[in-house]
Amino acid sequence: MEKKARIVILGSGESGVGAAILAQKNGFDVFVSDFGAIADKYKEELEEKGIAFEENKHTEELILNAGEIIKSPGIPDKAPIIKKIKEKQIPILSEIEFAGRYNKAKTICITGSNGKTTTTLLTYHILKKAGLNVGLAGNIGYSFAKQVAEENFDYYVLELSSFMLDNMYDFKADIAVLLNITPDHLDRYNYEMKNYVDSKFRIIQNQTSQDHFIYCADDPETIAALDRHQINAERHPFSITNKVENGAFLENDTIYFNLNNTEPLTMTIQELALQGSHNVYNSMASGISAKILELRNETVRESMGDFKNVAHRLEFVAKISGITFINDSKATNVNSTWYALESMSSDVVLILGGVDKGNDYSMLRNLVKEKVSSIVCLGLDNKAIHDAFEDDVEIIVNTKSAAEAVEVAYHLAKKGSTVLLSPACASFDLFKNYEDRGDQFKAAVREL
């Protein structure tokens, strides 16, 4: 095969290596560059495929001669190499955009500030249980590009972050899901909420009247932005406060799925595997996707009743001496912690803290007053937490390790209480990432 143009891939994680494999398969001259060290498993994969790479540096003469750059979503636009690429006007795209050029399968694409991992996994679970030939990719699972190169799925369920959407241009979702929009990652959007909202709305770009757009009719940022964006797809709202048409709504603890030209489906919220109002929203979004695909009502009902949630998201760890321990380490922003607290019914000892992204804790105050007996801080700088809650909670204790936090929380909790790790912060002050924080929390609980 004659060599095509040169493609350079920045970042050598799951998405970068997957993009390299797909690019090589399609005859491109491929080079992978990572400013950090490349993990052994990815290095072995690149070597096995004979793909050129470098680590711990970006060599400009090997990068700035590219026809296109595929960028890891974690690399910010202010990175020096990105500025130089932009100066040379070399197109920058995401792995998803690149893979989309070669993908023939139908795509269900899910974004939102909160709940997208749960909704993506639930949607995938429903489709798989229905017997569809379906892949899982994006911000979760295996690389979309690698699967397009090596698999032959009929459907993909893709979790898409705003960072991924920012470098997507011609890609089209057959079914686009927008769960909610709350302030997050605003440092990447010049601290302008409108920029972040517009990034999320890229999920509907290139859609036609044959496609579908599922969105939360109760989310103020989403509703405010609807008129600002051209929506060509068929709309499917969902709500827990009002009846809606061609979507899903909650009434008297029963969810009604009423989509045009499909058999209606009803489910009580008690039948759902996922509890809490935020998970009613997630279940509605997944259920609408399933109804669009005309899956059997019985399959949808069963799947939403037997689903097991993702690790580190409201994950039950253990019950010790009548005290329940819940790992919600994936809650890296205030809104996620609000959802976690909202789903709690018992007296809560809340473990909070880490790297604060300019958090506004005021939205938690009512729930903290109502449900939280004490707060255990897990971070190097806990001043903002003390300032926010010193009038609402009698006991606020500082700790500097997962083991110490669990030990203190255990002694503060009473029989029937819940110890909830839901930090509302990033984890990088004391841990490698939120998974490491959650794993250390679980290990400490099991040591009690």
Automatic annotation (TrEMBL):
It is an enzyme of class 6 (ligase). GO terms for molecular function: ATP binding; UDP-N-acetylmuramoylalanine-D-glutamate ligase activity. ATP binds at residues 112-118. One of its GO terms (cellular component) is cytoplasm. InterPro entries: Mur-like_cat_sf, Mur_ligase_C, Mur_ligase_C_dom_sf, Mur_ligase_cen, MurD. It holds the Pfam family Mur_ligase_C. One of its GO terms (biological process) is cell wall organization. Residues 312-425 form the Mur ligase C-terminal domain. Residues 110-288 form the Mur ligase central domain. It catalyses: UDP-N-acetyl-alpha-D-muramoyl-L-alanine + D-glutamate + ATP = UDP-N-acetyl-alpha-D-muramoyl-L-alanyl-D-glutamate + ADP + phosphate + H(+). Its EC number is 6.3.2.9. Pathway: Cell wall biogenesis; peptidoglycan biosynthesis. Its main location: cytoplasm. Keywords: ATP-binding, Cell cycle, Cell division, Cell shape, Cell wall biogenesis/degradation, Cytoplasm, Ligase, Nucleotide-binding, Peptidoglycan synthesis. It is found in: Cytoplasm. Belongs to the MurCDEF family. Cell wall formation. Catalyzes the addition of glutamate to the nucleotide precursor UDP-N-acetylmuramoyl-L-alanine (UMA). This is UDP-N-acetylmuramoylalanine--D-glutamate ligase.
